[in-house]
Structures are given as structure tokens and as C-alpha cells.
Amino acid sequence: MKLSHIIATLLFLVATTWVVTWSERTVRSIQATYYQAITPFLKSGSKFEDASRRFLSEVKTSRQLESRLAANFSEFERLKATEARYRQIESENKRLRSALGFKERSKFNLVSARILRREPSLWWETITIDKGESGSIATQLPVISEKGLVGKIDLVSEHTSTVLLVTDESCHVSARVEGTPEFGVVSGRRASYGEEALLILKYLTKEFSAEPGTRVLTSGKGGVFPDNIEIGTIQSIVKGPLYTEALLNPSFNLEETEVVFTVTKPSE
Amino acid sequence: MIRHFFLCLLLLLLGVIIQQWIPSMGNAFYEARILILPLFFFCIALSQPYIATLIFALLTGLLWDAEHTIAPFTRTTDFEVETVDNLKYGYSILLFGLIGFLIKFLQANLKYRGLGVYVVIIFLSLFLYLSLETLLLLFIRGWGTLQDYRFLYQILFTSLFTALFSPLLIFTLVGLWKMLGTREKGLIQDTNTLIRRTY
Fold first, then answer.
1. Fewest C-beta in 10 Å: which of A147, B100, B144, B163?
2. pLDDT digits (tens, 9 = 90+) for B145-164
3. Cβ atoms of A186 and A249 closer than 8 Å
4. Is-contact A150 A166, C-beta < 8 A?
């Protein structure tokens, strides 16, 4: 090995060590600049991916579409009936609130965002959304969908943000089991091939038991996620020597979701 | 030499852009994807001298981590029972440097060189890179996070598809370098020989 190669290798190792010791702030700033620079390509890439996704979905046979249409029609009829009932309850609720002098208010301030890219990395369960700093998004803000908890904001650039999904192992959420005094910690669990990604609820008491389908909600104890947002439903329970664990089906389905909402702050 | 360096730099940035347009291959192929940025680096490593390879390992690692690393939080979890550490920004620079070193070593010691050999080197390099990255991640996050061996198939298919895609990039690079009037050396010489043999 030549002397110049040895010197180059040493310089390379020094440079690598220097990069690895960069502060979180520096890393964040570099990543924000990077995402700002690639935003136009990210958006056009997202359009391309959407177009290819749409093309693939259009390839499905008409028979499949017909049966889906029939199923949707019956679901539509059912929802119409549900909506009529909902309207009735809503108007009754309004009358009662008005009677009691309650001020109507929504629980959260929500910023809607479209999903630009799903799971860009091999290992991290993340999505990229089309709202960033300019849309009042900041790191660590909770992200929800109409179905339930999606995750939290990991990285923000001016026009885009990366969301760390609740299905990632590194996203931990304080949770409670509906209808029980049980609290635990929900985290992601890497899916086996062909399976949907599941969540795991840890640190339940040894005596814990619940029916499959029981809802698991955020407890609000951690300070990052507000309380009472649905995380998932119990699929099965695994008894351990020290504590019980439950496997959950996440409420949020990445494949079916186009738009998510970032909870900026609770309404005053 | 300088022109080549800047052309490679331009190509690396182009790789970042192209990567944004490449979707994953779905469940049938274990969510594998063609990883353009590492592919550009491996091709550059096959065609550039050792020192330039190290510089490009640094640049590729910086770009790769900017897109893929989840930076540490001041508060990593919602609930302070346990925390899961992530890989530090810059880890991939070391991995790319290591792979670049191995590529140069193999290139210098192989008797037979040709496009097929380079495709195999690219496949092995990416397989090694992704395996090392996974092992580091498992080491940091704990072996408990490993539910099955799906990741092995994912790595295998990703390496395979990327390696199969590589001849296209190699021919493009050779074309560009020939336009710049490069001396026939390394990857360029071997690819030219192959083209002469084929046609």
C-alpha cells in the first residue's frame, strides 16, 4: 500500500469520526437543507408513483371491480342509514349542549397533509408528507388520520416533513385499554412476509385479559400524543412471566390513506 | 482527472434525484427496490483511483444518511420506560469506505475482468453493505426486534435488482468517459473489451 493511500485512509477515518460526532442540531439542519433541495424531485417522484399505482389498480379485472361496486353500494346504503341516525343524534346533542350553555369547540387544531411517499427507506417505517415548516409543522407533533394514530413528525423541511409511523419499533406511545384500568406502552413490530404490520402493547399486568377487538387508545401521559386517540384493536394476548403483552391491529392503514392530519396544538 | 471527478460528483447528485422516482417492488419481491445512489458509488469506485473512491464514500455517505437516518431526539419516546437508539448520522460513510476499499482490492487482484464480473462485484458489495447496515441496526436496537428472516430476502432482491440494473449505468458511464477522451483504464477498458467481443 502506497504512503499516499495510507494518509488518505487516515484522513478519511478522521473525517468520518468528525461527521459521526456532529450534534443533533447540525444533523437536523443538514437533513432539512437536503429535503428542501430534493422537494421538487420528491413531489414529481410522488406523482410518478401515484400514476404507476393508479395504472396498476386500473389493471384489475372488471369482475373484481363489479363485486367491489356491489359491496360499496350496500355499504353506501348502510352508511346512509347510519348518517341519518348520526344527524339525528347530532341535532339532539346540539340542543342539549345549547341548553347546558356549553361552548362547542373542536378538540384539536389540525393541519391536513397529503402523503407524498411511503416508506422510502428499507428499515424505517416512515412516510413523507407535503407540509413542512411553512405549514406550521414542527418536530414531535402527533400525526393522526380519521382512523386513528399515524405517528409523529420526525424531520421537517420548509415544504415537506417525514413522519415516523407508530408501526416503527422506535416509536413508543403510552396507551390505555378501553374499559379497563390497564396502561402500557405501544410500539411497532416488524411484519413477517405477507402479514400486516402489527403493534405490540407491553407492560400490562399479569392478570390482564380482554376480548379481541377491544380498542387501545392513547393515554396522554407521555406528553407527546394527546389522549383518547385510537391506536388499534387487540388481536391476541401473550402471557409472560412478569407482564402480559397484547398484539394489536393498527387502526391506521397506510395503503388506504391519502391524507393525514398533524395536530398542531389543542384549541384554547 | 479533475473533469472526471466533477462528472462523478454530478452523477452522484443525479443518482439522488433518480432515486426519488424509483418505487419499491411491492410485496411480491419483499418491498425490494433499486438503490441508485449506492450503485453510482460502486460504479465510481470501480472506475476511479483509491483516493477518489474514499472522497466519494464520504459524499455518498453524507447524502445517504441525510435521506435515511432518523436523527436522535432530545426526547426519543412518548413514554420514558425504554428508548430505542438509532444509527448515528455518518455511519454509512464508514460502510461505503469499507466497501470501496474491498472493491479496489478485488479489482486489483482479479485475473479475469469483464462486465459480468463487475455486476457480481456490485451485487456482492450491495449485499454486504445492506447486511452490515442491518447487523448494526439489530445490534443497536436489540436482536428482539428481529421477528423473521424477511429482511434477508429483501436484501437479496434489492441487491439482485440493483446489480441487474447496473450494466445500463456502466455503459452510460463508459460512453460519458469516452466523450471526455479518457484513457482506457479499469472499468472502461474492461467494458470496451466486452463490447468489442460482443459486436
1. B144
2. 566 677 788 899 999 999 99
3. no
4. yes
Beta bridge partners of A215: A233
* Per-residue CA distances from A163 to A60, A80, A144, A176 (Å): 31, 34, 10, 23
Average pLDDT, whole number, for chain B?
79
Whether the CB-CB separation of A159 and A148 falls below 8 Å is answered with no
Gap between the Cα atoms of A9 and A5, Å rounded: 6
The CB density around residue A153, as the number of other CB atoms within 10 Å, is 22
Contact between A187 and A144 under an 8 Å Cβ cutoff? The reply is no
Pairing between β-strand A259-266 and β-strand A126-129 as defined by DSSP bridges? unpaired
Which residue in the block uniquely carries the three cell numbers 390482564?
A208
CA distances from A236 to A49, A180, B192 (A): 35, 16, 61
Chain A nearest-CA residue for B154: A122
pLDDT digits (tens, 9 = 90+) for A56-89: 667 656 678 888 888 898 888 888 888 888 888 8
Contact map slice: A 9-48 vs B, CB within 8 A: 9, 11-12, 15-16, 19-20, 22, 24, 27-28, 30-31, 34-35, 38, 41-42, 44-45, 48
Tally the C-alpha atoms within 13 A of residue B52's C-alpha that lie toward its C-beta.
18
pLDDT below 50 — which residues of chain A?
Answer: 102-106, 267-268
pLDDT at B199 over 50: no
What mean pLDDT comes out for the span B130-158?
80
Calculate the alpha carbon distances from A75 to A82, A87, A103 in Å: 10, 18, 34
Indicate the DSSP class of residue A232.
E
Cross-chain residue pair A8–B51, CB shorter than 8 Å: yes
Q: Are B78 and A121 within 8 A, CB to CB? A: no
Reduced to 3 states, what is the DSSP secondary structure of residue A100? Answer: helix
pTM over 0.80: no
Banded model confidence at residue B193, pLDDT cuts 50, 70, 90: low
Three cell numbers at B122? 456490485
Mean pLDDT is highest, among A92-101, B70-79, B89-98, B180-189, for B89-98
User: How far separated are the first and last CA of chain B, in Å rounded?
Assistant: 29
Based on the number of CB atoms within 10 Å of its own CB, is A13 exposed (0-12), middle (13-18) or buried (19 or more)?
A: middle
